[in-house]
Amino acid sequence: MTDDRPRFGIMTAPMNVGYQDVLRVWQEADAVPQIEHAWLFDHLMPIGGDPDGPAYEGWTLLSALAAQTERLRLGLLVTSNRFRPPAVLAKIAATVDVVAGGRLDVGIGVGSRPHPPAARREYAAHGIPFLETADAVAAFAEACAVIRRLWTETEPFDVDGAHVRLRGAFCNPKPVQRPHPPIVIGGRSAAVLRVVAEHADVWNIPGGDLEDVVSRSALLDRFCEEAGRDPASVTRSVHLGVAYDRPGATRDAAAAALDAGFRHVVLGLPAPYPPDVAHWVAAELVAPSL
């Protein structure tokens, strides 16, 4: 992302919805140039609606959608670093980038906090340890560094970190994109923003209180400067919820975010998805904002 042009995308949370419904929306969006990117989330159980309803594994579904679209950039907003060892995640992401022909943006974050409570239960339900926040952030920083090395280094290497330990680590095939796919880090805490300053190409934050969003962006600026990095080299991204019966509220939120320097906008589409929802998004939400 080298220019300052606003880029709009959609997010379809793959819970309490059918696979064919998600596929339809993504294929519709793939044919609408105003929609440039599309996202899933990374939860193993629903975090809204019927708690016992379907929830599709994010990377598996993403690979299927990558194979059935041609233009959209795509990713998970965001991968839980708690769910998969980083070397395994690097391999998964490289595979998806190959399937997508170089269209992957690798969204990653520390992983769910205990809130909402529905997000906490998926760890025990799948036998996944839930590291407390300080350890989880430290493990996340190590993971970002290791994943980048796996995508770029041409010889096996060892890692002896506090949280990541590897012997003869190597990733083949490499991602299609060089030097590697863009890294999109999601989060708002100061600890995560320090990781963003070191590793991210794009920083995403959920929308809400714009004043807080702007203050977090300013904090990221400071952390980038402390790390010797140009703050402008990190694209600012925001997730905004959509209400089909109140498009004006989303347009207003998008306009405010763009004015605040957030040039990458993700529009969260609730299910059920109306017919031809991608064209509706382009006409009602994107076009008025450009």
What does this entry look like structurally?
This protein is of the alpha/beta class and 290 residues long. It has one domain (7-289): Luciferase-like domain (TIM Barrel). Helix content is 40%, strand content 18%. It is built from nine helices and eleven strands. The protein has helices spanning 19-30, 58-67, 86-100, 117-125, 133-152, 190-199, 210-226, 247-259, 277-286; strands spanning 7-11, 35-40, 73-76, 79-80, 106-109, 157-160, 165-169, 183-186, 202-206, 235-241, 264-268. Strand 4 (79-80), helix 3 (86-100) and strand 5 form a beta-alpha-beta unit. The longest helix has 20 residues, at 133-152. It is globular, with a radius of gyration of 18 Å. The protein starts with 6 loop residues before the first strand and ends with a helix.
Give the topology, please.
Blueprint: E1 7-11, H1 19-30, E2 35-40, H2 58-67, E3 73-76, E4 79-80, H3 86-100, E5 106-109, H4 117-125, H5 133-152, E6 157-160, E7 165-169, E8 183-186, H6 190-199, E9 202-206, H7 210-226, E10 235-241, H8 247-259, E11 264-268, H9 277-286
Parallel strand pairs: 1-2, 1-11, 2-3, 4-5, 5-8, 8-9, 9-10, 10-11
Antiparallel strand pairs: 6-7
Helix pairs in contact: 2-3, 3-5, 5-6, 6-7
What key phrases describe this protein's structure?
single chain; 290 residues; alpha/beta; TIM Barrel; 9 helices
